[in-house]
Design goal:
Blueprint (H helix, E strand, L loop, with lengths): L1 H23 L41 H10 L1 E2 L7 E4 L2 E4 L5 E3 L5 E4 L8 E4 L16 E8 L3 E7 L18 E5 L2 E5 L4 E5 L4 E6 L2 E5 L3 E3 L5 E6 L1
Parallel strand pairs: 1-9
Antiparallel strand pairs: 2-3, 4-5, 5-6, 6-7, 7-8, 8-15, 9-10, 10-11, 11-12, 12-13, 14-15
């Protein structure tokens, strides 16, 4: 009987000991792989607030006072005239000395010729409706050849050779820039070239639509060999 009681007590003690050990043993945790945080969506780049330049002011219309025309020409940023003392033809450059040559975005090409005694700025314009060759004028007719010396504007004339333009054409005059030389200042936009003569307070607008004088110039009887002329 004592043996049975002892065995039962032993079993009870063993059971309690096992329970105590189980309570002291830490619970095993299943490892969890941490989830990678979602990539942050990059915020939109700040929009640029730089404003683009406003539309360029158009050239003064026909009949505008000469002061408005001069003001328009002077409103454009000046460009260094030193880059325009050269003409280019078939890859060959010709130094022009004190003379100036330039070409506009619309294709008008202009050149001075003071070394040969001419005071006029000559421009070749691709006119849509050039003046016809007069019946009494012989030679190669250039209806888009325009001479402007400040006192008069002559449109269309005969030329047996290219004259000053034999050297080619000048560098591009960028739109909305102004070029000053002698008594002249010229400004161009994409379609119109305007040149002012300070000495005579006159100006001319050149475009394929036609030639428009400003100031005191009025249409007059053309000099022999000239198609259309405006004079003060």
């Amino acid at each position: 009987m004592r043996a049975a009681l002892f065995f039962a007590a032993s079993v009870l003690v063993a059971g309690c000991s096992s329970t105590a050990v189980d309570q002291q043993r830490p619970t095993q945790l299943t490892p969890i792989t941490p989830s990678r945080p979602a990539a942050a969506t990059p915020s939109a780049a700040p929009s640029s607030t730089t404003s683009s330049p406003g539309p360029a002011t158009p050239a003064p219309p026909p009949g505008s006072p000469i002061s408005a025309v001069i003001g328009w020409a002077e409103a454009a940023a000046p460009i260094d005239s030193g880059d325009f003392h050269v003409a280019l033809r078939a890859g060959t450059a010709t130094e022009l000395g004190e003379d100036v040559a330039f070409t506009t975005a619309s294709g008008t090409t202009c050149m001075t010729d003071t070394r040969r005694g001419s005071a006029a700025l000559a421009c070749l314009v691709d006119l849509r409706d050039p003046p016809p060759q007069p019946a009494d004028v012989y030679g190669v007719w250039k209806g888009g050849w325009v001479d402007f010396d400040g006192k008069s504007v002559q449109i269309g004339s005969a030329h047996g050779d290219p004259g000053r333009f034999a050297a080619g054409q000048g560098p591009p005059l960028p739109p909305e820039r102004s070029l000053s030389f002698g008594d002249f200042r010229c400004r161009t936009d994409p379609t119109v070239l305007v040149c002012v003569n300070y000495a005579h307070q006159t100006a001319v607008a050149y475009s394929d639509a036609g030639i428009e004088p400003y100031g005191c110039s009025r249409q007059s009887t053309p000099t022999p060999g000239v198609g259309v002329q405006y004079s003060c």
